[in-house]
Here is the input.
Amino acid sequence: SSGINAEYGMFLIAVVFFLTVLGLYTFHVYLLVHNRTTLESSRAPCFRGGFADAKHYDLGGLENTKQVFGRLPLLWFLPIATTMGNGYEFETRAYTSTDVPARNPIIP
Here is the structure.
C-alpha cells in the first residue's frame, strides 16, 4: 500500500516537472520563431528615433531559426558553430512606408 502511494507521488512529481519543462520549451520556441530575447518578450526594444518595435528583428519563423541555428538544417543538432552573423549586428526586417512604426511619444 505504501509502495503504491510512493509510486503515485513520484509519478505526480514527474508530471509536474514535465509540464513545467514543456511550458519553458514552448515559450522559448515562441521566442525563437519571433526572433526575440526573454527581455524583449516583456518590453519592446527602443531604437534611435524614439520608436519601440517588438517585430524589428522578426524575419519570419524559418529565417529566424536559420539565424540562430545556421543555414543547413542537417547541422542544427550537431554541437558545432553554425550561427549567422557576428553577434553584434543583426538583420532587421524591411519596412515599407505603410508599416514604419509610429514614433513613441514617451521617448524623446
Summary: Residues 93 and 99 are 11 Å apart (CA to CA).
